[in-house]
Amino acid sequence: MRLLVVTHNYPRFPGDPSGAFVARIAERAATMGGSVRVLAPHAPGTAREETINGVFIRRFRYAPDRLERVAYTGDLHRGSLRSPGVAAAFPGFVWAFRRAIRRELRTVAPDVVHTHWWLPSGFLVAGLAPRFLVTCHGSDVALLHRAVFRSMAGRVFRRATGVTTVSRFLADELTKRFPWVQPKLQVLPMPVDSALFSTGRAQPKRTPPIILFAGNLVPMKGVDVLLRAVAQLRAANIPCRVRILGEGPSEAELRDLAARLGLLDTEWSPFVPQDRMPAEYGASTITVLPSRGRSEGLGLTLVEALLAGASVIGSAVGGIPEVVEDRVTGLLVREGDADDLARALRDLLQDGTLRDRLSDAGRARVATIYGAETAADAFLELYARAGHG
Questions:
Q1: Do residues 227 and 293 share a domain?
Q2: What is the mean pLDDT of residues 26-30?
Q3: CA-CA-CA-CA dihedral for 327, 330, 332, 337, to nearest 10
Q4: Are residues 184 and 206 in the same domain?
Q5: Residue 13 has pLDDT above 70, yes or no
Q6: Is the pLDDT of residue 73 over 80?
Q7: Do 119 and 228 have their domain in common?
Q8: Bigger pLDDT: 134 or 86?
Q9: Looking at residues 142-171, what average pLDDT do you find?
Q10: Are 330 and 358 in contact (CB under 8 A)?
Q11: Which residues of 371-381 are buried (b: 16+ CB within 10 A; e: fewer)?
């Protein structure tokens, strides 16, 4: 089978977390004998063409290096276009992306095209490829509250051979907007490298206990709620330290809040390569995803953290409850509620038996559902059906 993967996020270097789950599916398809090509945007320092783990990758140019910032450098669906530099490059990005798609379709004549995120990839492929699949990851579904995006997405989903989401929550969101999409819709979780993240279990826990957040520093992630909850723990003389691992437009504001709350020992780190994340999770006692709103499609950081031996807490929004079953695989808290988060943190920090029970159950569950081969092979079955449909 000839497979073309179209995405605005694909790993740029070994260990790059950007689109790592997309790469795992593509590489599994190549391992099973498929001819697999990926089309993704160029980024400064990356090769225009290369083959990695059996997958041929072509990266299209759309601007000089200094302006190639539309992909990879922020969340395209949550406001990165507000940056003047990104906005200036966006028209060239769209034009070059569509032109590159046309070229790949002529060159490869793929049996199936798999687009990740309905916008921009699915939107640009729709009408060009006779058979294509679109996978929605979360941030793209959050766009559908606006009429203009619903109209655009509707055209994509009508033309698509199949549509997948990474969680049942997202599938429900789509069917509420587009009831007619149900017959072609499947929930297929993203594959996680279980073997890689399980190495974190050998990592000794740090003292005082580390409470870790890993993700984009944007308001919907709720890092401000985490900082306020940790300040309550410190006021109650409960030993702990918070580590914020990520980047984004809210960083300066969050650093200022930490200082005002007296959390001067808060650890701040930019994103690290994926092969360093198991140690990050493994050294933490608790990993927290305190998201607010309906934009959290699943919360893969919690899956990774459980595999690495951390306990987890998530807010009860979006797809997070599909990973965290309250008091079974972790703890759920009310979104935006620092008091409730502080209570949950206190429970886990002070009860080692509870921590071990939840993390053991969580690790067993996510390894079964999100294991790389199991999850990726579900996509291979979908490719086979789509290619012969």
A1: yes
A2: 96
A3: 120
A4: no
A5: yes
A6: no
A7: no
A8: 134
A9: 96
A10: yes
A11: bbeebbbbbbe
Q: Do 85 and 231 belong to one domain?
A: no
Domain harbouring 200, CATH code: 3.40.50.2000
Whether 269 and 376 map to the same domain: the answer is no
Please give the DSSP secondary-structure letter assigned to residue 112. Answer: E
Q: For residue 120, is pLDDT > 90? A: yes
pLDDT confidence of residue 80? 65
In the sheet where 267-269 sits, what is the strand order? 267-269, 241-245, 210-214, 286-289, 311-315, 331-333
Q: Which residue has the tokens 């490719």?
A: 383
pLDDT of residue 317: 94
Long-range contacts of 129-132 (CB under 8 A, 24+ apart): 129/4, 129/101, 129/105, 131/161, 131/386, 131/387, 131/389, 132/159, 132/160, 132/161
Do residues 226 and 270 share a domain? Answer: yes
Name the residue among 6, 35, 3 with its Cα closest to residue 22: 6
Q: Do 36 and 152 reside in the same domain of the chain?
A: yes
Give dist(CA 154, CA 371) in Å, integer.
32
Higher pLDDT, 271 or 357: 357
User: 59 by DSSP, 3-state: which?
Assistant: strand
Mean pLDDT of 322-335: 97
Asked whether residue 47 falls in the same domain as residue 169, the answer is yes
Q: What SS3 class is residue 225?
A: helix
The Cα–Cα gap between 51 and 151 comes to 37
Retrieve residue 315's tokens.
Answer: 């807010």
- Which of the four pLDDT bands, split at 50, 70 and 90, describes residue 75? low
Range of the domain at 377: 2-191+371-388
Note the pLDDT of residue 297.
87
Mean pLDDT of the 89-115 span: 95
**Count of the separate structural domains present in the chain:** 2
Rounded Cα distance, 276 and 37, in Å: 27
